[in-house]
Amino acid sequence: MSSKEDPLPHDLGLKLRHMRTLHNLSLKQLAQKVGCSESMLSKVETGKVNPTLTMLRKLVEALGINIAFLFQAAEDADTVVHRAGERPVIGLGRSRNGVGIMLERLPPVARQHLLEANIHIVNPGGSTDGAFSHAGEEMGFVLKGAITLVVEGVEYRLGVGDSFAFRSEKAHEYRNDGAEVARILWVNTPPTF
Fold it and tell me: What does DSSP assign to residue 2?
């Protein structure tokens, strides 16, 4: 499990490099597919830089995996409960206060799940760093703070108690323009994170 100080799984870069190698892709080829520099991709693979959510989505799509693959540890397939403080957390991107977004995985990682749920913890200034889309449907509920959600270019300012739902094929992104950490319960299907 990752701590708040080191939000990247210790083997995130290794898993990405392994999958890139399995696909017979050079750093340059994968960097071109995801729209970043070879240097940036190398820093992600060596754990020196954490990718933004948008970059990570592009990486996993190009490699034919999902973000849950990066959370996987030696977890029992029959695990039912994840206790508070023991759930895997992955940090992405940067903000004014360090890591931009942290995803706290709610259900244990399992191939048989039809739903996926995370708490998106968005620090002030944190963002997805661009829009993305994918197959599926998603919904969310703001637990704390406020975010700006952008779906198909339309901005929605959401605060505590607000909820949302949309088809994942619509280009979407979000950011925290405020001074307080935001926490959003985010559910999607099929599992893509």
Answer: -
